[in-house]
Specification:
single chain; 3 domains; Hexapep; A-2_8-polyST; Trimer_LpxA-like_sf; alpha/beta; Rossmann fold
């Protein structure tokens, strides 16, 4: 154990022969253990909340908070992170990243406050304070009490002098925040679902109105100021979507055709792929076998694109295509479409219209 560590009701916790940094803090029922004889390495100022587990060949950076019941196995967590979920499917949406980008770019000297239902990729030094709400999920009936409790928390923040960013909250709480009379006169930076907000607005304008990356990035001029794409090599990125859950076995044939056609059509390109958090290992292995290079799924693609340079990005009906089109100049975005997918998901027709309005070409899979 380190020279300085903190115990907060540690009953039921098991700490193995790992490497621990200074100021290690843990609560009840925490586990730090081995996998195949390999123990984790923990940096400084790591906090484990109740029920969390760190196992195997895991490296935890400095200033990392492991949320309650989080499960980390054979994974690396960078510095200054809050971790939610189960390895390897950590929660890493786009909106908290965009909140941090706006806060650091336009308001670096302000008292910026982030309100979120959880995102382990938050750069904590950007925000003066981060308020982590209890996750309400997508069911109004199951989480009504949590929704009302979270709403009260947001209302209580309305009188503070902070610049408030509300990011990555599920749609039931999103609705309550937007239509709350107590918040009608307050100003927030409000981020929620991407393409879903457009579709819902078209189906029923009274159902929900949610800000989107398109409006914010366009208003603030992030398209040109945020990044100037130059491209030192030819790179193609494929964003895998979990369409197996909709199409079943028929997806495998379509997937095989897609990745082979990309390899044939872009012979001179370095091929990358990033999996959705619900993607399967079977698709991952097929991509690796064809020579695609895997990108870390624990980061949102918009943040990865800040570091790497791609000339072409291809996917099926992904809201990330909109984000990348707006954030990066001179990049070719292609949205693949398929009649079987559109039959299973009728709202994809609305998505195609949105892409068309933003000059993102949609290509039939059979013609690709």
């Amino acid at each position: 154990m380190p020279n300085v560590f903190h115990l907060d009701h540690p009953i039921g916790s098991v700490l193995g022969r790992a490497t621990y940094g200074e100021n290690f803090t843990f609560s009840q029922n925490c586990t730090v253990g081995n996998n195949k004889g390999i123990f984790p390495k923990l940096g400084k100022n790591v906090t484990m909340h109740s029920g969390s587990k760190i196992l195997g060949d895991s490296t935890i950076g400095d200033n990392v908070t492991i949320s309650a019941n989080c499960y980390i196995k054979d994974s690396s967590i960078p510095n200054d992170r809050v971790v939610f979920g189960e390895s390897p499917n950590f929660h890493s949406p786009f909106h908290s990243y965009l909140s941090g980008l706006i806060a650091s770019t336009y308001y670096p000297k302000d008292k910026n406050l982030l309100v979120t239902e959880g995102n382990h990729k938050i750069k904590r030094n950007i925000f003066h304070e981060i308020i982590e709400l209890k996750s309400t999920g997508g069911s109004v009936l199951k989480s009504r009490a949590s929704i009302e409790e979270s709403l009260k928390t947001i209302i209580s923040l309305a009188t503070t002098p902070s610049r408030i960013f509300i990011s990555d909250i599920a749609w039931p709480l999103c609705n309550r925040v937007f239509f709350s009379k107590e918040l009608n006169t307050n100003s927030f930076y409000f981020f929620s679902d991407g393409i879903g907000s457009y579709i819902n607005a078209q189906k029923n304008k009274k159902q929900i109105i949610r800000d989107s990356a398109k409006v914010i990035t366009g208003t603030l001029g992030l398209t040109s100021r945020y990044r100037n794409f130059t491209g030192h090599h030819l790179g193609l990125l494929f964003l895998d979507q979990p369409l197996w859950s909709i199409l079943g076995k028929s997806w495998e044939e379509k997937f095989d055709y897609t990745i082979k056609r990309m390899k044939e059509n872009y012979k001179d390109y370095t091929l990358y792929f990033k999996q959705h958090h619900r993607s399967r290992n079977i698709e991952k292995q097929k991509l690796l076998d064809l020579g695609y290079l895997e990108l870390d799924r624990n980061y949102c693609i918009e943040e990865i694109a800040e570091e790497k340079q791609f000339n072409v990005v291809i996917s099926f009906y992904s809201s990330a295509l909109l984000h990348l089109k707006l954030l990066i100049a001179d990049i070719e975005i292609i949205s693949l479409r398929d009649k079987d997918i559109e039959k299973a998901l009728p709202n994809t027709v609305n998505v195609i219209d949105i892409f068309s309005n933003h000059k993102i070409p949609s290509v039939e899979l059979k013609d690709f």
